[in-house]
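Quick one:
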Amino acid sequence: MTLPSKSRALIAILAPLLLIIACSKAKPRQYSELGQKGTTGAHTEENCPVHANEPMGELKWTTPTGWKIKAATGMRLASFQTGNDLDCSLIPLSGEVGGIPANIRRWLDQMSVNIDAKDLERLCQGVPKSTSKAGIPYQVVDLTPYTGASGESIIVSVSTFSDVMLFIKLKGEKAKVLADRKAFLSLCDSLSR
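Output:
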């Protein structure tokens, strides 16, 4: 069955108009990147340790010995290559982004590790709280006990600044993550404003 030419012409005119009307009502998503002000490309020793952001203030840290500063791309505030050739990143995100339990579940999923709700609750309750030398509180989520000897693992530090959560994440082969753990914790402990 074919449509009369007048109907086809009417459809040809109305279809694009309906598409334009439908698309004009959709609101685009907007994201705020909380990146370095005044820096682009690779970080240098001079510009890497300072991040100016209203909720976090001016954030500083000390790069662990043996770690190399890499270009911070995307949502990253800073990136490092560790002494064991792993990637460590500082990522600030607005809001609670699901809180500790949702993030632990997501990190476990990234490692293909499944735990039941009770074990997840125990894990969340057992996350130790620390304070940097400058008084910035943080929690360290160490997921190395949940992976096999040769699997990938993750250690993450979480700090909350008003409505921004700062994640410092170290991910890689479990043995290397464990070898870089002390330097990772020194990075977390060096946070200051």
